[in-house]
Amino acid sequence: MTIERAYFILYMIVLCWFAVLITASLIRSIIGPRITDRVLAINMIGTMVICCISILSVMQKESYLVDVALIYAMVSFVSVLILVSVYLPAKKVRGEYGTDGNAGVGKASTESDAELVKTIADGDVEASKTKADRSKKK
Amino acid sequence: MTSQWIGFWVVAVCLLFGMLAFTAAVIGANRFGFAMNRLHSAGIGDTLGVMCIVGGVLGATGFHADTLKLILIIVFMWFTSPVSSHFLTQIEYYTNPELYRIVGKGAITSEKQKKQQKKQKNHSRK
């Protein structure tokens, strides 16, 4: 076996295994329950494609493919940034338990009342008075 | 002739270890139950996998005109992968209503609780 034949077999094994892995990531991007999983799977597919292109450049001795891989890395990063800027909430507020940020803002008044009741039930009278004063001022 | 085969085996070990890292990343991304765990396993593929695969390609080409570009790919991926993971974690943190069931109630402090904690600290200082 010559050395070129050995390198060819090695590269073919790696590329075929990358095809299997990209298919598995594509399945995750389809069944992902939230937007985070989909963006994550697309980012992983991009990374694996970069590796495939750099292996192809040394396999076929085409040096311009390295430039293609570099540009692909930049474009995949920009795509992730733009998707994030679309889906990240503008008002960065983490809501109360069981709600997301936007839903937590609307429920604030009822939750403060619930806390007031809880403090009164605990026997913490002074804290409940101060809380009632704060709510009156608001 | 022997030195060529030694180089071939070094390249083969690099590429196969990179494949192992990517396989671990994909298995983790498909099998873990929570989105932040999946982000962690994807970060392994983005850094260790890219380093090993592109390092193997560097060993196969030798010193060449493309060496600097290949090193630049590694550096670029190492800088951008933590940034994208950070932003995806921010999306998951601010918009997932099921988060408290997974990490426990005490782990998350809402904005209201943070303000209350600040007020309590100021009172204790006075």
Characterize the structure shown.
The complex is a heterodimer of chains A (138) and B (126). With 138 residues, chain A is mostly helical. Chain A folds into 2 domains: 85 residues; 37 residues. Helix content of chain A is 81%, strand content 0%. The longest helix of chain A has 29 residues. About 7% of the residues of chain A have low confidence. The relative contact order of chain B is 0.09. The interface between A and B is large, with 58 and 58 residues.
Provide a brief overview of the structure:
The complex is a heterodimer of chains A (138) and B (126). In chain A, 81% of the residues lie in helices and 0% in strands.
Described by strand count, sense and barrel closure, the largest sheet of chain B is: none
**Beta fraction of the residues of chain A?**
under 5%
What count of domains describes the coordinates of chain A? 2
Percent of residues in helices of chain A: over 70%
Helicity range of the residues of chain B? over 70%
What is the quaternary state of this protein? heterodimer
**What is the arithmetic mean of pLDDT of chain B?**
84
Strand/helix succession of chain A: HHHHHH
Order of helices and strands of chain B: HHHHH
Number of domains of chain B: 1
Q: State the total count of DSSP E strands of chain A.
A: 0
The structural class of chain A is mainly alpha
Structural class of chain B: mainly alpha
Mean pLDDT of chain A: 76
Cα-atom radius of gyration of chain A: 27 Å
What is the general shape of chain A? elongated
- How many helices of chain B? The count is 5
Write the layout of secondary structure elements.
The complex is a heterodimer of chains A (138) and B (126).
Chain A: H1 3-31, H2 35-59, H3 64-87, H4 101-106, H5 108-122, H6 125-137
Helix pairs in contact in A: 1-2, 2-3, 5-6
Chain B: H1 2-31, H2 35-61, H3 67-95, H4 99-103, H5 111-125
Helix pairs in contact in B: 1-2, 2-3
